Amino acid sequence: MPRRIETLSIQGPAGNLEALLEEPDIQPPRLAVLVCHPHPQHGGTMHNKVVYRIARGVRSAGAVVLRFNYRGVNLSEGTYDRGNGETEDARAALSMLRLRYPELRYALAGFSFGSRIILKLGCALPDAPVCLIAVGFPARDPGGLEPGNLQPGNCDRPRVFIQSTQDEFGPAPAMQSYFDHLTGPKELLWVSARDHFFSDALDTFEDTVLSVGRRFPVE
Fold first, then answer.
1. What gap in Å lies between CA 105 and CA 94, rounded to an integer?
2. What's the CA gap between 10 and 17, in Å, rounded?
3. Which of 3, 26, 105, 143 has the highest local Cβ count within 10 Å?
4. pLDDT (tens digit per residue) in 12-34
5. Bridge-partner residues for 162, per DSSP?
């Protein structure tokens, strides 16, 4: 049976959100994962190449994956809201995913701006995700103005950071300093790559995501 690939329109707080749902290739899903894309005002969409590789990596590990476009991106309704509204868009997308697969545990993953979104949302959810995968975290300005009041610090949810060794927005010294400041379960994985977008190392990056996904507890 061919795997399910479904385009969706999710009701978000500012209007409909364009989304794409993909199940694993050859097995029933063992986990549900929401993937958030980078900054919508800098060309970020759910079809970004790093987001695509995150989605394919966790799907290869047996996850059903939901990607979506924030408000105002492509067919998604609404306008940019400095990270606050985008966090609520992610919450709405996650709610839909969990309603569709109520029997599955879940995880969140995000790239760049999307990593801020999933950390803000995932660390505050009342029922804990199995993991938060933060890719290309912009550690040069970890709190920043977006999204909302995200600050480095306490979180009791397992977090895995995957970072390029040459990330211009999260250079190694700043990323290590940010990571060392965090409390709670955490892991930092480095991928030798040319820039923030894992240029020349996307296959290695995807393999890293796959290895993380295979470790997800599902019971």
1. 12
2. 5
3. 105
4. 999 999 999 999 988 899 999 99
5. 135, 189
Q: Flag whether the pTM goes above 0.70.
A: yes
User: What tokens appear for 25 in the block?
Assistant: 């290739």
* Alpha-carbon span 172 to 46, nearest angstrom: 26
Count other C-beta atoms under 10 Å from residue 166's C-beta. 17
Enumerate the domain spans of the chain.
5-214
Distance of CA 111 to CAs 25, 151, 219, Å?
A: 23, 17, 27
191 phi/psi in degrees, rounded to 5: -120, 125
Nearest by Cα to 144 from 179, 117, 176, 166: 117
Q: CA–CA separation, 84 vs 148, rounded Å?
A: 5
- Please tell us whether the domain made up of 5-214 is placed in CATH 3.40.50.1820: yes
What is the three-class DSSP state of 56? helix
